[in-house]
Design brief:
Largest sheet: 4 strands, mixed
Helix content: 40-55%
Strand content: 5-15%
Order of helices and strands: HHHHHEHHHEEEHHHHHHHHH
Shape: elongated
Radius of gyration: 23 Å
Strand order of the largest sheet: 1-3-4-2
């Protein structure tokens, strides 16, 4: 267990065996033996390793090591394996702290995620995905209204949402996976709210559509269609734009973006997929977006969502005395002094993030 943690912390930090050896003053062979489990570092060396790898000593002493099961990434294909290892390590640390916290409650504080019933066992076309998204919204009692806080909806249904402050040079958007059988979704904090929301809806699509798509359907495209349909149902966009249009005003797209929290380009794809606009007109508008440099940065980004459930659970556990202040600070990866300021709402820490 200790060996695995040393290796993961090193890869998360982006250090090579030689780099870490130089930082702690031992040979590369010794670090390799630490990671293979054939040599155990003493307490002094653990302190050095923790400092070099920017973790607390307690990180090495956790009793369980989790793994991402069947992760589905939303990322650029050019994201390097080394960078992906760093991101995964940070994600696993967040998940481990959350799972440890939840285990301290007398009763599970989060309900189990259950796939909505009455979904088709097999999805054979993109149009059927519209019905799947509609069924999920109906069973979750979301109606046709915009979803103000998608994080809250997912958490209330048993999907744990994590935020990582790492965009990996704009190549990482998020992922969906299982950890110990629990569903998790991870988003990047460095994206606008509309992009975060599309990522979350896309990753929810992976969880919902798993094992349902015929081989001929591309899973990524299917999850894109699900995300659009979940955030902006067909009945809602028909009500706003009509069932067929020859032209659209950019202000119409911007207003819909601010109302439903989906990007202007995402709305255009919805309009094309549903036959509201012709494919040729969609292409024309996307060329216009490129000229305006809106393909990456659209005007008036939707406010970013901030997962807060972990922090809320920490203070819940602290109030009920399931944990003490020192443990709470450790779980939130901050000093006891900084946590005390946050707890006492001192120096503007009331809305501070972990």
């Amino acid at each position: 267990m200790l060996a695995q943690r040393i290796e993961r912390a090193r890869k998360t930090s982006g250090l090579s065996l030689r780099d870490l050896a130089a930082k702690v003053g031992v040979s590369q062979t010794a670090i390799n033996k630490f990671e293979k489990g054939t040599l155990t570092p003493d307490s002094t060396m653990l302190i050095k390793l923790a400092k070099a790898l920017n973790v607390k000593v307690g990180y090495f002493l956790r009793s369980t090591t989790l793994e991402l099961e069947k992760p589905e990434y939303r990322k650029k294909s050019t994201l390097s394996a080394k960078k992906l290892q760093m991101i995964e390590g940070k994600i696993l640390d967040l998940i481990e702290r959350r799972m440890e916290l939840e285990s301290l409650f007398p009763k599970p504080p989060v309900q189990e995620f259950v796939i909505p019933s009455n979904l088709p066992e097999q999805v054979t076309s993109m149009d059927e995905i519209e019905e799947v998204a509609k069924s999920v919204r109906e069973q979750w009692q979301l109606g046709l209204n915009p979803i103000p806080e998608l994080v809250d909806v997912l958490e209330s249904k048993g999907v744990r949402v994590f935020e990582i402050g790492e965009s990996a040079d704009s190549k990482f958007d998020g992922l969906a996976a299982k950890v110990n059988g629990q569903r998790v979704i991870v988003i990047s904090s460095n994206w606008s709210g509309d992009r975060q929301r599309f990522t979350m809806a896309h990753e929810l699509g992976h969880l919902i559509l798993e094992g349902r798509l015929i081989d001929e359907l591309d899973e990524e495209l299917a999850c894109h269609r699900f995300a659009g349909a979940f955030l902006l149902p067909e009945d809602a966009i028909w009500s706003e734009l009509g069932e067929f249009r020859t032209r659209l005003e950019l202000q119409e797209l911007l207003m819909l973006k601010q109302e439903f929290g989906i990007s202007m380009s995402g709305i255009l794809y919805r309009a094309k997929d549903l036959g509201i606009i012709k494919q040729s007109y969609h292409k024309q508008l996307m060329i216009e977006f490129s000229k305006r440099r809106w393909r990456k940065n659209e005007p008036q980004p939707y406010p970013a969502e901030k997962p807060h459930h972990f922090k809320q659970l920490v203070f819940h556990a602290l109030a009920e005395e399931y944990i003490g202040e020192s443990k709470a600070a450790d779980l939130m990866d901050m000093s006891v002094h900084k946590f005390y300021q946050l707890r006492m709402i001192e120096d503007g820490h009331a809305a501070s993030d972990q």
